[in-house]
Write a structure and sequence with these properties.
Blueprint (H helix, E strand, L loop, with lengths): L1 E3 L10 E9 L6 E3 L5 H9 L13 E7 L5 H14 L5 E6 L2 E6 L5 E8 L5 H15 L8 E7 L6 E7 L6 H20 L12 H13 L6 H11 L24 E9 H13 L4 H17 L3 E9 L14 E9 L6 H15 L7 H8 L7 E7 L6 H6 L3 E4 L8 E8 L2 E8 L5 H24 L15
Parallel strand pairs: 1-14, 13-15
Antiparallel strand pairs: 2-7, 2-8, 3-6, 4-9, 4-14, 5-6, 8-9, 10-16, 11-12, 15-16
Length: 474
């Protein structure tokens, strides 16, 4: 499953309908005493309420092709059932005297409305219209925070589904879950069977209680704070930037960032690398970050690879299938001195990941308050292995893609590395003013390191077994 922008997905022509939630007449929001998470509160606090395009650079989502006939009533019921299942889609934020407060409505207070857009039907028109619509409608301040679009295709037995959401109610893991969840719900509605039930859809508002308890326990002297203090002290309090540095090629103010998505290695190729790393006692995550670190140090000449790594923070299986924002960030500093090889990088990366683990469940935003951090992350790398998810091959057959909005940042570089059944994919975004050749060289070097290590391990001869008289397997 690729992580990409909407303009890189070819939507087949068809009839467009938008679906969204509204509160039923006569219902009211209920004040919810459960807090926002630290990151949600900061996201809300930093948002410009006067922005005419609140979703610009912020929305995320999922698109796929539903392998069943379009039925308007069933789609309406699907959207309602999805909101009923996930309380996170029925909560919003309101300003309060002491900061942001939470409001929630019951499932029975929700109704679903739809809007047909008959004048938009061609592929390019659909893509442009949907990107504009998501930028204009999705906001952390205005509910609903989710919009669903369907495109009925003439003379086929399927239709396209796009789910767009403000980041405050969805994370990357949620994006992947959407495809199979909506498919299962829709099929149950068409068949007239009972909707599948699970105990793994707990509310993100309940998670916020857990996260706030963890934040309250942090001190200026605790281990997670020390991990971040040491990391930031090495760069005078600044977050890392992408290395090698990328020179601007022209003035590109207000232009969207350049986005790329590439399949780097086939499944057999990356599997060979993973098996070779496992033989040395290392996990796939270690193999990926070791290759990134070695590529960076080879091209930049710097003896340390420094980045920010997003990590999933669903602390219990009851949130395993929830829609919400369950993400933290941790610092990663991997020493790779000149002359180091990939095995050296594996060892260094293993140590760096173990060191960073102490900060996984410690809310970074609270630590930044304790340390009075004024900078913000500019370079991050995420790694996700979606093979662990059920029906990941089905997602591919349904043309499932995780989507991110076009970004307009002038200084951020982000990489998303995805291990899928088909192989290894990388998605990246970087400022339009940056030279694509430099980023491409980095990706090529990263790929070559992984491929060469796997090929070398595959080509290595099997060690001969020494036969010693009188000894054998016990």
């Amino acid at each position: 499953m690729e992580y990409t922008i909407l303009s890189h997905f070819d939507i087949r022509p068809g009839t467009l309908t938008l679906w969204s939630a509204v509160r039923a007449p006569g219902t009211e929001w209920k004040v919810d005493e459960r807090p926002l998470t630290c990151v949600h509160e900061k996201y809300h606090r930093d948002f410009d309420a006067t922005d005419p395009r609140p979703g610009r650079g912020r929305w995320i989502g999922t698109i796929f092709e539903m392998d069943a006939p379009f039925d308007a009533r069933a789609v309406r019921d699907l959207v309602w059932a999805w909101h009923a299942r996930h309380e996170g889609l029925r909560t919003t934020v309101a300003a309060a005297d002491c900061g942001a407060g939470r409001l929630t409505c019951d499932a029975l207070d929700v109704d679903i409305v739809h809007e047909r857009i008959p004048e938009v039907s061609a592929s390019a028109e659909l893509n442009d219209y949907l990107r504009e619509m998501l930028e204009e409608r999705l906001s952390p301040l205005v509910w609903p925070h989710v919009v669903i679009a369907t495109v009925e295709h003439r003379d086929t037995g399927n239709f396209t589904v796009l789910v767009g959401a403000d980041h405050s109610v969805m994370d990357a893991y949620s994006q992947v879950l959407i495809v199979t969840e909506l498919r299962a719900l829709y099929r149950a509605l068409l068949d007239g069977t009972s909707l599948p039930h699970s105990d793994t859809f707990a509310s993100p508002a309940d998670y916020a209680l857990v996260e706030r308890q963890a934040a309250a326990a942090l001190t200026a002297e605790c281990t997670p704070t020390e991990v971040w203090r040491n990391f930031l002290s090495a760069s005078d309090g600044r977050f890392p930037r992408f290395a090698p540095p990328v020179a601007a090629v022209e003035d590109t103010a207000e232009q969207p960032q350049t986005s790329v998505s590439r399949w780097l290695l086939t499944d057999p190729e990356i599997a060979a690398t993973e098996e070779a790393a496992a033989a040395l006692g290392h996990r796939p995550t270690t193999a990926i970050f070791a290759a990134l670190a070695l590529a960076s140090c080879r091209l930049s000449g710097k003896p340390e690879f420094r980045t920010i790594m997003p990590v999933a923070t669903r602390p219990h299986k009851r949130w395993a299938e929830s829609m919400g924002w369950f993400v933290n960030i941790v610092p990663l500093a991997i020493p790779v001195p000149g002359g180091a090889n990939y095995q050296d990088a594996l060892v260094a990366t293993d140590g760096a990941l173990r060191h960073a683990k102490a900060a996984t469940l410690a809310p970074a935003e609270r630590i930044f308050e304790l340390l009075d951090v004024r900078d913000r992350p500019r370079f991050a790398v995420s790694y996700v292995d979606i093979r662990r998810l059920p029906d990941n091959e089905l997602i591919t057959r349904l043309r499932g893609r995780a989507l991110r909005a076009d970004s307009y940042s002038s200084d951020e570089v982000y990489f998303w590395v995805v291990r899928a059944a088909e192989g290894l994919n990388i998605s990246a975004r970087f400022p339009a003013a940056y030279s694509p050749a430099v980023l491409q060289r980095f990706i090529d070097e990263f790929t070559a390191i992984l491929r060469e290590f796997g090929e070398a391990a595959t080509a290595a001869p099997e060690p001969m077994l020494a036969v010693v008289a009188g000894q054998g397997a016990a």
